[in-house]
């Protein structure tokens, strides 16, 4: 919660490499100077490049200039509708234009943004929110009516907005404005960590009359809209009236470059100053050479495979359990990511608050896997694995897992998907796919991906008793009791869930050496990640 006191947690799991996890702090994140899960940044952990001037945050900020940032995008179907944000490029653009009531700090605790403060009643089923004084780009104040409109739009049953599941605890029919800047949120049940709901992925605030998000988007964020060409670029201009301080940059341009080589070449050639998500082999080729800054943060990005639990062959939990035992996680990490990360244990959020670190590290066991497949009548199983070059390590890990599965008598046919539409394609299609995730609280991962009504439920994990446990955890005021419920839920996922999590990868990016001012300890999806309003060009 927002005002929860700091606490120190023990290291996670029995197989943690002290080089990757030197110590933990509040909510399980790494101590200062070490990278946290789902994190990437431009300074602090980048090695020799950082000391020579690239990517640092020291010095006096300078006003002016245009920064060009290259991200993998979503093709011609891209939109600036912030409630549809899904890819990292979508979120980076959305946070440049819009604000949320709260956002996740570097430790994944909820930090006030448009909400100046919040306060709960004793039973935790009513929360009073006071908005700060902020204005939209057209000069109108951000009001309680805008907030309620935004949340009602997100939860429209006819829409599939990502934050819908996270906002589910709110009774929006009963919730109401108590003034221009006051809101009383009435909840369907007591919710101890309601500020996390306000910080939910995709829960941006838009004007109550907003309809045109791609040609005239109006937000309250640090940059104003200039132009947008889906699948190509988006240009934004400095908002001098931003409530949290005007950006240093005059302009910010997002450039879509789906191929990693294109992003690297653009950075090396001076066409961009920021290249998002580089492969470990690229990092090794350029680290310490002085031309660009390479930054790697440890164990940042959950990597795995998603099995659809609602259709054959993975509707039989014995097949899922066999696949857990087929995976050689170290071989996947070494082969797909050059060892740049730590192995996973089929659960999201290694190192995060509530992570079930007491569960034994799963090891490869081909004999047991074959026995499970035989019991399921799937001795000569053939299955298609969908993957794409949309993310570092995807195609490599797919090939490695195909070879691992063959030793258990399973034939895997690897199919390449479109980089432009991969994430939407695999949400409902296929049976087995490559998957990854950046940082979010474990409770947010559950609400957005593992409940019957979750809009990004890639494993089609639909269990009413599991939903009920989540609601019980939300309503449990005592943290220890709440943690016990989350551990119970994770034990079930560990036993029969649909996510085969084989590793947590280092996050790597590159910047021009003149880039300054980016927070060095900001996990992806959190407040200070991709905060281009705090960046300047030296």
TrEMBL record:
<protein>
    <submittedName>
        <fullName>ABC transporter substrate-binding protein</fullName>
    </submittedName>
</protein>
<dbReference type="InterPro" id="IPR030678">
    <property type="entry name" value="Peptide/Ni-bd"/>
</dbReference>
<dbReference type="InterPro" id="IPR006311">
    <property type="entry name" value="TAT_signal"/>
</dbReference>
<dbReference type="InterPro" id="IPR039424">
    <property type="entry name" value="SBP_5"/>
</dbReference>
<dbReference type="InterPro" id="IPR000914">
    <property type="entry name" value="SBP_5_dom"/>
</dbReference>
<feature type="domain" description="Solute-binding protein family 5">
    <location>
        <begin position="111"/>
        <end position="438"/>
    </location>
</feature>
<dbReference type="Pfam" id="PF00496">
    <property type="entry name" value="SBP_bac_5"/>
</dbReference>
């Amino acid at each position: 919660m927002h005002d929860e006191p700091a606490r120190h947690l023990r290291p996670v799991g029995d197989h943690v490499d002290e080089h990757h996890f030197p110590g933990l702090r509040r909510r399980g994140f790494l101590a200062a100077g070490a990278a946290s899960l789902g994190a990437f940044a431009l300074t602090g952990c980048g090695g020799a490049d950082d000391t020579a001037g690239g990517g640092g945050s020291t010095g006096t900020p300078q006003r002016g200039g245009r920064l060009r940032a290259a991200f993998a995008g979503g093709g011609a179907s891209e939109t600036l509708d912030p409630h549809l944000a899904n890819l990292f490029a979508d979120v980076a653009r959305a946070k440049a234009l819009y604000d949320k009531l709260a956002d996740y700090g570097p430790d994944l605790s909820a930090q006030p943004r448009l909400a100046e403060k919040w306060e709960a009643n004793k039973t935790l089923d009513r929360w009073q929110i006071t908005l700060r004084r902020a204005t939209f780009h057209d000069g109108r104040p951000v009001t309680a009516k805008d907030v309620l409109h935004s949340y009602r739009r997100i939860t429209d049953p006819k829409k599939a907005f990502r934050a819908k599941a996270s906002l589910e605890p709110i009774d929006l029919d009963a919730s109401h404005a108590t003034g221009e800047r006051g809101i009383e949120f009435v909840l369907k049940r007591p919710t101890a960590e309601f500020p996390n709901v306000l910080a939910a992925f995709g829960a941006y605030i838009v004007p109550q009359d907003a309809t045109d998000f791609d040609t005239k988007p109006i937000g309250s964020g640090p940059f104003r809209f200039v132009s947008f060409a889906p699948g190509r670029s988006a240009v934004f201009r400095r908002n001098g009236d931003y409530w949290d301080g005007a950006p240093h940059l005059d302009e910010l341009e997002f450039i879509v470059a789906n191929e990693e080589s294109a992003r690297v070449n653009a950075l090396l050639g001076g066409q961009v100053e920021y290249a998002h998500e580089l492969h470990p082999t690229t990092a090794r080729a350029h680290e310490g050479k002085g031309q660009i800054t390479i930054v790697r943060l440890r164990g940042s990005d959950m990597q795995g495979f998603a099995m659809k639990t609602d259709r054959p062959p993975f509707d039989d939990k014995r097949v899922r359990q066999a696949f857990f035992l087929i995976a050689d996680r170290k071989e996947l990490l070494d082969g797909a990511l050059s060892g740049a990360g730590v192995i996973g244990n089929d659960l999201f959020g290694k190192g995060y608050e509530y992570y079930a670190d007491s569960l034994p590290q799963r090891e490869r066991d081909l004999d047991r896997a074959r026995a499970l497949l035989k019991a399921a009548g799937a001795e000569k199983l053939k299955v298609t694995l969908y993957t794409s070059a949309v993310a570092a390590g995807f195609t490599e890990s797919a090939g490695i897992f195909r070879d691992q599965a063959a030793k258990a008598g399973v034939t895997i046919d690897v199919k390449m998907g479109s980089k432009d539409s991969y994430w939407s394609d695999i949400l409902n299609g296929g049976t087995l796919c490559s998957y990854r995730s950046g940082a979010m609280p474990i409770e947010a991962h559950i609400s957005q991906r593992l409940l019957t009504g979750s809009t990004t439920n890639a494993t089609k994990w639909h269990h009413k008793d599991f939903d009920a446990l989540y609601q019980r955890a939300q309503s449990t005021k005592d943290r220890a009791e709440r943690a016990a419920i989350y551990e119970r839920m994770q034990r079930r996922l560990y036993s029969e869930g649909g996510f085969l999590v084989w590793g947590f990868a280092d996050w790597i990016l590159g910047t021009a050496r003149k880039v300054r001012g980016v927070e060095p300890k900001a996990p992806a999806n959190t407040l200070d990640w991709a905060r281009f309003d705090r960046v300047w060009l030296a």
